[in-house]
Amino acid sequence: MQEFHDAPIAPLTTFRLGGPATRLVTATTDDEVITAVREADAAGTPLLIIGGGSNLVVSDKGFDGTALRIATTGFTLDGTDLELAAGENWSDAVARTVEAGLAGIECLAGIPGSAGATPIQNVGAYGQEVSATITEVVAYDRRADEVVTLTNEECAFSYRHSRFKQDPTRHVVLRVRFRLEDAAGLSAPVKYAETARALGVEAGERVSAAKARETVLKLRSGKGMVLDPEDHDTWSAGSFFTNPILTEAEHAAFLERVAQRLGAGVLPPSYPAGEGFMKTSAAWLIDKAGYPKGYGEGAARISTKHTLALTNRGDATTEDLLALAREVRDGVHAAFGVTLVNEPVTVGCAL
To answer: Is 0.85 topped by the overall pTM?
Structure first.
């Protein structure tokens, strides 16, 4: 294991923000990960797990404890069964499954970060979520001090959520197992309307998995959602807020607020989200509340390509970013009575 003290965290995050860690350890095997976690727990030292750093907002003061960077590798494909080490680059892994002619995660192309983070957030985009293909998650259980294998059901997946996110101090993901589909090189049925339009097909149809991946990458690039060191619109955590899920009563009150503010003929995006619930668009809310693409005058601004991405224009601080996030969150609530929830994990800071 590599070990450094008073080590910068910002370069390990896609926001490129945050102060140093008291101690930074890089683990390249599962055993090293477990050893580092056990040492921190035994000493009572705060522990921060870092994968691809694409979902972290770290305080300007940094992290007073051990930051453990998981850099494990492993891509094993057995028929349609895939196992990924937690440290594997997610976007690269998706590309390799498409090259193998398999379907199920092709629309999750270009999402930055590591494979180990995907079950934590139940990562999803363009009509796919990892929960649809994950069969098992192998993790180190810090309370039981043992390696456990959790089934899909035991992971308690929901929209951008899981048992790992619910109880973030218990499990450290080591490996993720998926079952993909051999559809003779075709994609899974296309579910997302924007993807279907870009592909020129109807929802429910299949295309080549390679074409689906390529199309999603183009869509993401157009929104600044594919990492590019030269493009400050990608110095972000992707979508900063999750799409709100409202009860029927909350949704009815929301529609009244929309009518009052924008006129009776304006209907916001609304999608069924389980019995008694409706989901609406955070991007729509942000834009209609008065925060368009490129909003802001400081070093932290809304992306010029997508209203859901808050970005570091090069010399922002974490507090600059949080101030913008609070302004947007509070402005949306004042306009529509809906409270946006941040998707990235905050470390040593909060909205």
So the answer is: yes
209 vs 87: CA distance, rounded Å: 24
Query: Under DSSP, is residue 250 helix (H, G, I), strand (E, B) or coil?
Result: helix
| DSSP strand pairing (47-50 vs 63-70) | parallel
CB 129 within 8 A of CB 120: no
Task: Report DSSP letters for 4-18, one per residue.
Answer: EEEEE-GGGSSS---
Residue 107 near residue 212 (C-beta atoms within 8 A):
yes
Mean pLDDT of 197-205: 95
Whether 87 and 116 have beta carbons less than 8 Å apart is answered as: yes
The DSSP secondary-structure symbol of 336 reads: H
H/E run at residue 66: strand 63-70
Per-residue pLDDT at 1? 84
Within a 10 A sphere around the Cβ of 218, how many other Cβ atoms? 13
> Measuring CA to CA, how many Å separate 253 from each of 230, 266, 311?
43, 14, 31
Average model confidence (pLDDT) across the chain: 96
The catalytic residue positions are 160, 239, 343
SS3 264: coil
pLDDT at site 301 = 98
Query: How far is Cα 105 from Cα 232, in angstroms, rounded to an integer?
Result: 27
- Region 170-183 average pLDDT: 98
The size of the chain, in residues, is 351
Structure token pair of residue 304:
């010029």
Secondary-structure percent of the chain, ordered helix, strand, coil, rounded to 5? 30, 30, 40
| Residue 263, token pair as written in the block | 């006129």
**pLDDT value, residue 127:** 94
Residue 164 contacts residue 119 (beta carbons within 8 Å): yes
